[in-house]
Amino acid sequence: MEAAADQGVPGGNGEALTPPPPLPLGVRLQVGGLTVAIDAVERRDGTVNRCLYSVIDRLLSARANPRPDSSGVRSYDFTVDASRGIWARVFAPVAAAAPLPVIVYYHGGGFALFSPAIGPFNGVCRRFCSQIGAVVVSVNYRLAPEHRYPAAYDDGVDALRFIDDAGAVPGLGDDVPVDLSSCFLAGESAGGNIVHHVANRWAAEHQPSAKSVRLAGIFPVQPYFGGEERTESELRLEGVAPVVNLQRSDFSWKAFLPVGATRDHPAAHVTDENAELAEAFPPTMVVVGGFDPLQDWQRRYADVLRRKGKKVQVAEYPDGFHGFYGFPELPDAGKVLQEMKAFLDSNRTARKSTTP
Question: Bridge partners of 183?
């Protein structure tokens, strides 16, 4: 979906900002509660009130459930590295007639908050499984500021290595075969940032010697990129768009980046010609929302991929706020999954067609 250029929506030619359609009451309450919780635990010095956070985490978390839900999706957890607290939650059908692609998922939360058990992320992964038709492995990585850059990237790569060494999704029975040569990475917000960096490192350092995992594509959904510059969309949507604002963004970078680093650090600023991309960097579908303050960074990211000769598709949703696809009540949330499925099917088919 492409954003209109001259209809008063973000990205137009300077016309007045048109507010998004009113959100359903349930979505407004969830978004409001989420932002209140974030502001309550994030301290100005770049630390997190973990005592309060642990209470909120318990309230928002869902347990894995080996019994299938109404859509036929079951879930369970497995450990990647207990010493670092790295684990993953698997979402899978009870059975499959043919090998399914695998989506390795990295949750959002500004690098400092949440886990695969948090309700919205748990729900997104269930919908990935049922509506896209994939086995989903949602990774729990270490959080900042206790574990700064590059901890989240290291954990993301190590989860892929763990699956590759096993030659399978751990704990998944023979009734659900998987195709690890059709492995995709997905994540929103900070998770979208992690998706990019994990994919780049995997393509450069691990893909040539991988036993079974082969990245067929990635889905950075409204990825968290940034820089010292305040972009037009960040300034225009400050105080207007929900979830993301300059204060919360600055907190995330302060918590995650090395002490003393600026927002032009390569982890954040993957939006200019200095971005280093591996030769085997996979095809990419970038999701952009018209009411996301980070949209300018996301479009620059897509432009960099194009200029460096990488295959990239941009899916734009003019009414989308940051994290909109996590709310199934919104029509665009379903449309995102349709576009993701089409991208997955296309790239999986293309990869299979080149296999002798």
Answer: 102, 215
